Amino acid sequence: MSNIQFPEDFLWGGAIAANQSEGAHLAGGKGLTTVDMIPYGENRMPIKLGQVDKVTLSEDEFYPSHNAIDFYHRYKEDIALLAEMGFKVFRISIAWSRIFPKGDELEPNQAGLDFYRDVFEECKKYDIEPLVTLCHFDVPMHLVNEYGSWRNRKMIEFFSRYARTCFENYKGLVKYWLTFNEINILLASPFSGAGLLFQEGENHDQVKYQAAHHELVASALVTKIAHEVDQQNQVGCMLAGGNFYPYSCKPEDVLMAMEKDRENLFFIDVQSRGYYPSYAQKVFDNKGVVLETQEEDFEILKNTVDFISFSYYASRCASADMNAGNTSAANVVKSIKNPHLPASDWGWVIDPIGLRITMNTLYDRYQKPLFLVENGLGARDTLDDNGEVNDDYRIDYLRQHIVAMHEAMEDGVPLMGYTPWGCIDLVAASTGEMSKRYGFIYVDRDNLGNGTLNRIPKKSFHWYKKVIASNGSDLA
Ligand code: BG6
To answer: Among 69-73, 149-153, 225-229, 319-323, which stretch is predicted with the lowest mean pLDDT?
Structure first.
């Protein structure tokens, strides 16, 4: 036992997302979404990054999201396992295209609404609080094909209709909401992040920042709607977090680190403060971006979030010349490789102190409670001769990060809860692999979809159960 003490109401849990877990990609009337079009293998990255002008399904490709880990049919078994670990909160996302299969309908799809109601009721059975992301890397494909996705202002209307439908239908069942998962990732990964494809010769920055503006207005508008529908609702933004360190103390490196941080924090600056930061105009000018806005947008933006949620896997590093070789791209955000830190098998650096630094930065900047909604180690787990997974490396990673997050809390940062990523093994967003596993629960499935889908608790399952039962004081 350590002397670490978390607040009594601290929300321990875990996180998954619809597109990486549910499968059943056309069941119950669901429409195709962006992620359903992203195959496993060499064609994955060009599509994710929006480097093609059209996406279609091909019989020669394997699409991991179509079956994923079949959470759609197995959610009762899965939630029971999470309850066994003592979960107090479970972060999931709603697939927009289950509720509005095409995205621009006026009436929702009842089968989709029923599915999530059942999931939320199952959570309530065990006193697990759902934390729900409205858009986790999945835009209905019809909206991409017909409207060009978030480059189009009409998306604000479609998204707010969808969000209102969710708030009204799940009133009393869900009170914690996130609008867009890792909203800043649309800059690095425009198709998977925001459904954006480009025409030849287009200024990509223009399209991306215009889409960002629409998402920011939509996020603020649905925050307002959430509060109107139920005063109990609390809405958060969601940042792919991790500070940039300067590669050296050269002022040029420090300046670059500040600018790279701003690229990401720009989104949260707007969502948390309610207006565009003063540095934005120069960024737009340099990139040749001219935003189309309407006067009402700036009134809407004043509806700020209640809390700041973020993911943290790794810190980042910047030098004056970001193309100076030696780069790594944890979570698709380009970074210089930090020589002082170890890395995972996928090159994501492991830096618990970076979590403490990130938390302090976010709280200094926004003065709103934080929620760490993703963190974890992607690793190749194997079953031993006894059919068990001894994932001590994961326990070690999580332990160090829990200590660091507690240290940040002692620094004075309020943290609402902790939902490590992929609490049940699921499909990796970047590579589409099943073999990049994060979970406390092993799922028998390989990169090409073979396997029984059986669930097997890992060693970390029993460890995390103790962590939760002791409210974070037993990390041994
Ligand atoms: C975050 C996403 O970017 O990182 C998740 O919100 C994703 O969807 C997670 O799965 C880990 O990344 P990956 O590529 O290892 O799955």
So the answer is: 319-323
Q: Is 373 in the pocket of ligand 1 (CB under 6 A)?
A: no
21 lines ligand 1 (CB under 6 A): no
The phi-psi region of residue 455 (left if phi > 0; otherwise alpha if psi is between -120 and 50; otherwise beta) is beta
- Give start and end residues of each alpha helix (H) in 51-140: 71-84, 96-99, 110-125
Q: Taking a C-beta distance cutoff of 8 angstroms, is the pair 341, 349 a contact?
A: yes
Cα 476 to the center of its chain, rounded Å: 29
pTM over 0.90: yes
Residue 463 neighbours by CB under 8 Å, 6+ apart:
395
Pick the residue whose CA is nearest to atom 12 on ligand 1: 429
Helix then strand then coil, % of the chain, to nearest 5: 40, 15, 45
423 token code pair? 């609490």
Q: Classify the phi-psi angles of 175: left when phi > 0, otherwise alpha if psi is within -120 to 50, otherwise beta.
A: alpha
- Choose one of 93, 316, 375, 421 to mutate for the ligand 1 pocket test, by most ligand atoms within 8 angstroms of C-beta: 421
Q: Is 296 a catalytic residue?
A: no
Residues 431, 370: Cα–Cα separation, whole Å:
28
**What pLDDT digit, counting tens, does each position of 73-86 carry?**
999 999 999 999 99
